[in-house]
Design a protein that fits this description.
The protein has 79 residues and is an all-alpha fold. The chain is 66% helix and 0% strand. The chain crosses the membrane at residues 7-24.
């Protein structure tokens, strides 16, 4: 039982690292704010992480239309 729990924990940590790394790569170094996988991951992130990610994207792509999930009341303005 202990070995099974250890394997499950390692798998969960690995998945979190993979998803978190992919999200960070989208926010910090993507060529476009319209990456479909990045937008999807942004939608699944908790509020504070999503706000941070949208802020980073706004710093990098502030003159473009925001991606889904980062738009304010007007879909053409950043939140």
């Amino acid at each position: 039982m202990k070995k099974l729990l250890q394997v499950v924990c390692v798998i969960l940590i690995g998945v979190v690292i993979m998803i978190g790394g992919r999200y960070y790569r989208y926010v910090a170094s993507s060529d476009t704010p319209y990456d479909e996988v990045g937008i999807m991951l942004n939608g699944y992130m908790p509020g504070p992480v999503r706000s941070w990610g949208c802020g980073k994207l706004k710093e990098r792509f502030g003159k473009q239309v925001p991606p889904y999930g980062c738009a304010g009341a007007d879909p053409r303005s950043w939140a």
